[in-house]
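From the pipeline queue, job 12 of 40. The input is one protein chain; the requested action is below.

Action: predict structure.
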Amino acid sequence: MTTAEWRKTIKARLGAIPPDQIRSKSLAACSRMIHTPEFQNARNIMLYLPMPGEPELQSLAAAAWKVGKNVLLPTVDWADNSMRPLRVQNLDMRYDVPMPRVPQPAIGDPFPVEHIDLVVVPGLAFDRSGHRLGRGGGYYDRFLSRPTVHAIRVAIAFEEQWCADLPVEPHDIGMQIIITDHDILRIKP
């Protein structure tokens, strides 16, 4: 399948999941994440505000705040197509123009990327080699390829997002851990 065909297929799969199942699957995947040594040992965790159909990460943020971890969210600079992390105290969001469907933190403090321990990366599809198919903007690939980003790369996904033989581009940054509502996959380097 082409990248466009994979995106269309996975968007349809995600769109077919009822909202109550999205919540329960999200809670199951986040619970698995909370119990990993990577989460336990991380002090600074970058999450994301989900788009419709993506795993909800509120329980993960709450667990992090409960034990004194810093929670970071990305904000996008549309002028230069870059992301930067903001340390936040809540998951309040706003929607930006020119991308009105992309949620961003309403307020937060800039945070140095070199101090991020763990980044939870969104994606439409994943394969068992750690490859990720995003939405096509390349924001996370550019962010994760910065020489100062040394964070562990984790995806939280639903079982419906597994695919075989995803197309991979040279600039694509793979995941080190993929956690679903049913399993944890650690990708060997």
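Job complete. Helices lie at 3-15, 19-34, 37-41, 58-66, 139-144.
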